[in-house]
Task: inverse folding
């Protein structure tokens, strides 16, 4: 019965430690660089579908035959 009273999540929370500042800086810089790459990729690739559909669309002009 005492085994069921132990909550393993409380043990996980008790063991939290601070991350060294230099490692934190490195991780934050890596995350910022990954975010920059994702935003740049979105900037250059998101409009391809609109561009292709615009190129393939035909303009229907009314012709007046004399």
Result:
């Amino acid at each position: 019965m005492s085994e069921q009273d132990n909550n393993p999540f409380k043990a996980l929370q008790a063991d939290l430690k601070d991350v060294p500042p230099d490692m934190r800086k490195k991780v934050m810089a890596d995350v910022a660089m990954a975010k920059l790459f994702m935003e740049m990729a979105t900037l250059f690739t998101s409009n391809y579908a609109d561009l292709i559909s615009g190129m393939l669309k035909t303009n229907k002009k009314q012709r007046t035959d004399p």
